[in-house]
Design goal:
Order of helices and strands: HHH
Shape: rod-shaped
Strand content: under 5%
Largest sheet: none
Radius of gyration: 29 Å
Number of strands: 0
Oligomer: single chain
Structural class: mainly alpha
Amino acid sequence: MATLTIRQLEETLKAQLRIRAAEKGHSMEEEVRQILRQTLSQTPPKPGFGTAAAQHFAPCATDLPLPERQLPRPPVSFD
């Protein structure tokens, strides 16, 4: 298990956390663990780069006609 230290926590926030933990009958540490678990389990994953790019450029997307395939040019002869 890891240890986490939170510095510069406002006294009002600490008091609210203490009250919330006492109402539920457990320690402040357990209350913080539960808050973190609940918050992080509800966070939707961020889209990958491809998805983000597709969403960004979707408004300007058009269907462009594809050119017909042609045979490749013959190789250049230096004779």
